[in-house]
Amino acid sequence: MSKQNPAGKGGESRAQLVLRTVKDLLLRNWIYKVLALVIATVIWAALITQDPSLTREKVIPDTTISVTGAEAMKRNGFVVTSDISESLTGFTLRAEVPQGQYQNVTASSYNPRIELARVSEAGEQELRVVTSSSSANGSVIEVVPATVKVKVERYITRYRIPVTVVMMGEMQEGWYAAAASADPPTVAVSGPESIVSTIARCEAYLDLTTLPAREGKIRNAVELVLVDGNGNPVDITNVETTNEGVLIDTVSLEQQVYPTRTFAIDTDGMVTGTPAAGYEVKSVSVDPAAIRAAGTLASLEELQALYSEATVDVSGRSETFTRQVRVTRPTELAWISQGTVTVTVEIGEISGTRSFQNLNVRTAGLPAGTRATLSEKTAQVIVSGTENALNKLRAGRISLICDLSGLESGTHTVPIRVDLGLDEVTSLETEVIPASVDVTIQ
Known about the structure:
single chain; mainly beta; five-stranded mixed sheet; 12% helix; 47% strand
């Protein structure tokens, strides 16, 4: 028997023959083979996209979450009082995403949020971050951090909080602004119980220096300020001011502006009665002597003066005194600067004079051994002073004296001194006619 040759045709080995056969298979119709590979790849990709069970994990950092249900929470009687704005950022989502949507999904695809409507009690609450899932976008596996802490208070409403108008400054000289009325006169305030419970009133500040100087009605819209019982502004964070269910932050103020004039206080007829015997009313004065009044220009032009509501009784009075009296405001006036004035009634003794005629003039101090001759032997005395003091005078007690002490012989002009003969010192004044006489000493 003969041995077989292990080499193939042309002397190729078996291994070489296999390699050449594979090469021929790969190179023969290679364009069709590449096309078939591409088609297979596309079909595979399409199948992957349509199969939601094929997912990939995706991490979405720096996510901001939203807050829902704030109004529903208020309807339930609660409100968040802590500032949670900084607590809503910096979250990380880890999600299972279908292969086909992997590049398209973002954090908003899952609507990460905290739901305030779920809160059912006051105090510090820890709310879980919730997300939404879908077959298209997949679902969130984990949120980091998973919760947000909030402070919750009871949400209350107080009705008929009064609006108080506070007027500041002064109008231009010659003008007066009447009290302003607010529209609305009351408001409702809603918010955290710790704040709303302290609110005493709502103030509206009106700067009178900004009002125009013209007669008529003026309207302004001014901001509202909520204040507590001590007049201090309160924190209006989370506080809503409403009128008939409509949110407001201003009120309308309406007031009348009038011109002003200055009027004297008429004192005629202000005093009644009779002072004590020997006394009279010396003067009547008021402080201030004139006050400002406001009204329409026509009404101001008709007035001449202002008058007191009541009179001052001086019956039996013997000393100066003061009284407060109210000033009558005529109905046609809108305002007077002062409702009262101080009346000073000066009471003094009645003054007068009395004349005494033909009173003898006598001498005193005449040196011994001499005699005196007077050019006038009688004189007239006129006495001035209070009536009470004058009534004490008696002609028989009045002395007219020429003091000759120290005078030598000859003729001298000597003044006449008066002695009224009273036991007490008075403020009476005297006048002698003639005031002096010529005296001849021998």
